[in-house]
């Protein structure tokens, strides 16, 4: 089982994040909002793959059963919060 803090640390260790919020309290199902300059110019699919890559084998070994990811570039994040 993994905590939301551990998921956060793994993502931050593998990806430069301007903002990250991971929620989930059952140890297997998580939601993540990740804002990173690394997402600029790449598709949502590639953005999500970058996030999943930071978790290594945790997704394959079922340490994490489900991770819902919302990714944003800093510019997109700023636009979302300007509404």
Automatic annotation (TrEMBL):
InterPro entries xref list: BolA, BolA-like_sf, BolA/IbaG_stress_morph_reg
Domain of life assignment: Bacteria
Family designation: Belongs to the BolA/IbaG family.
Name of this protein: BolA family transcriptional regulator
């Amino acid at each position: 089982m993994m905590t939301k803090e551990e998921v956060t640390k793994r993502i931050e260790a593998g990806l430069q994040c301007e903002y990250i919020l991971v929620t989930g309290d059952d140890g297997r199902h998580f939601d993540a909002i990740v804002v990173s300059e690394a997402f600029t110019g790449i598709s949502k699919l590639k953005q999500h793959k970058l996030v999943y890559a930071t978790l290594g084998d945790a997704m394959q070994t079922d340490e994490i059963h489900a991770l819902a990811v919302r990714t944003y570039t800093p510019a997109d994040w700023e636009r979302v919060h300007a509404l």
